[in-house]
Automatic annotation (TrEMBL):
Protein name: CCHC-type domain-containing protein
InterPro entries per UniProt: Znf_CCHC
Disordered as annotated region, ranges: 204-232
Taxonomic superkingdom: Eukaryota
A molecular-function term among this protein's GO annotations: zinc ion binding
Sequence ranges assigned to domain CCHC-type in this UniProt record: 256-272
Length: 288
C-alpha cells in the first residue's frame, strides 16, 4: 500500500511533457521532446513499466501530428508497432535525417557572436552546434577556439591570444569578467548623465539665486535696468488720427475746416480762434 501511495504521489507531482512542437527545426524539437519524456518517465518511475505501456504513454503525450506520422510508419513485424524501443527508433529515423558532418562543422566554425549576444548565450549556441560535428574529445578545445575568434570585444580577443594554456573555462571567465565590467561602466555613465540632467532641470526651475541682477565681465553684480518706456506718438495735427506722418495718407488733406474755412484739417484739431464767437462778442460791445 505504501509503494502504491508513493507511486500515486509521484504521478501527481510530476509535470507531463507538452506535445512536440512543429514550429522551427523538427529535429531539435523531437530531441527536446524525447528528453522531456525520458525525464518524466524517471520522475514517475514509469521507466520500469512494460515496453508496451511506455509505448502507449509516448503516443498519448507526443501529440496528434506525430500519431499521424506513426500511423504511416512501416515496421518489420506487426508487434513492433507496440514496442516502445521500435517506435522510438522509427521516429528518430523520421525526424533526424542523415547529417552531413562537413556541413555541420562549417556552420560551427563560421558562427560569429551577435552584437547583443551574451557570452553565456554564445557558448550555449556553440555547444548546441558542436553536438552535430562529432568532435568527440576535442569539443571543449574547439568551442574555446571559436569563442576566441568569434567574440566582438577586440581587447578581450587580444588578451586571449596573449594568454598561454587557456582552456574553455578560463576563456569564459575572462570574457564574462570583461562583459560585466562593460555593463557596470555603462550604468555609471548613465547615472552620471541623469545627475547632470537633474541639476540642469533644477537650475531652470528655480534659477541661479541672483534674480533681478546680472553678472558683469568683472564678476560684479548690478541691478538689471528697467525697460525704457517708448514715448507714445501724438495724433496727426491735421485729422487727429493715428497714421504714418505722411500728408498723402491723411484723410483731411483735402477737407475744409468748419471753423476757419481753411483746407487741410478738421475742425476738431483747428487751432484758429472761432470767428463766429469773436464777431458775436464785438457786436455785443457795440450795442453797449
Amino acid at each position: 500500500m505504501v509503494d502504491k501511495a508513493n507511486s500515486f504521489h509521484q504521478l501527481a507531482s510530476a509535470k507531463p511533457p507538452t506535445e512536440m512542437s512543429f514550429e522551427g527545426n523538427l529535429a531539435d524539437n523531437w530531441v527536446f521532446f524525447r528528453q522531456k519524456f525520458a525525464i518524466y518517465l524517471k520522475a514517475t518511475t514509469l521507466e520500469k513499466e512494460e515496453d508496451s505501456s511506455k509505448a502507449a504513454l509516448l503516443l498519448n503525450m507526443v501529440g496528434d501530428r506525430v500519431i499521424q506520422i506513426y500511423n504511416n510508419l512501416v515496421f518489420e513485424k506487426p508487434e513492433d508497432k507496440d514496442s516502445y524501443t521500435k517506435i522510438f527508433d522509427k521516429l528518430n529515423e523520421y525526424f533526424i535525417p542523415t547529417k552531413n558532418v562537413t556541413y555541420e562543422r562549417n556552420v560551427f566554425f563560421t558562427r560569429e557572436m551577435g552584437i547583443d549576444e551574451t557570452v553565456d548565450e554564445y557558448v550555449n549556441a556553440l555547444r548546441h552546434l558542436s553536438s552535430s560535428c562529432e568532435f568527440q574529445d576535442l569539443t571543449d578545445s574547439l568551442i574555446k577556439d571559436r569563442l576566441v575568434l568569434g567574440i566582438q570585444d577586440r581587447s578581450v580577443k587580444d588578451r586571449l591570444f596573449r594568454e598561454s594554456n587557456v582552456d574553455l573555462k578560463k576563456a569564459i571567465e575572462i570574457c564574462k569578467a570583461s562583459e560585466l565590467a562593460r555593463k557596470q561602466i555603462q550604468q555609471l555613465s548613465s547615472a552620471k548623465v541623469d545627475v547632470v540632467r537633474d541639476v540642469v532641470k533644477q537650475h531652470k526651475k528655480y534659477g541661479s539665486g541672483t534674480a533681478g541682477h546680472k553678472q558683469t565681465n568683472r564678476g560684479k553684480t548690478q541691478a538689471n535696468p528697467q525697460p525704457r518706456e517708448v514715448p507714445k506718438k501724438d495724433g496727426c495735427y491735421c485729422c487727429g488720427g493715428d497714421h504714418p506722418r505722411d500728408k498723402l495718407m491723411c484723410p483731411a488733406r483735402s477737407a475744409v475746416c468748419n471753423k476757419c474755412k481753411k483746407v487741410g484739417h478738421y475742425a476738431r484739431v483747428c487751432k484758429s480762434i472761432n470767428t463766429i464767437t469773436c464777431n458775436t462778442v464785438s457786436n455785443n460791445i457795440k450795442k453797449l
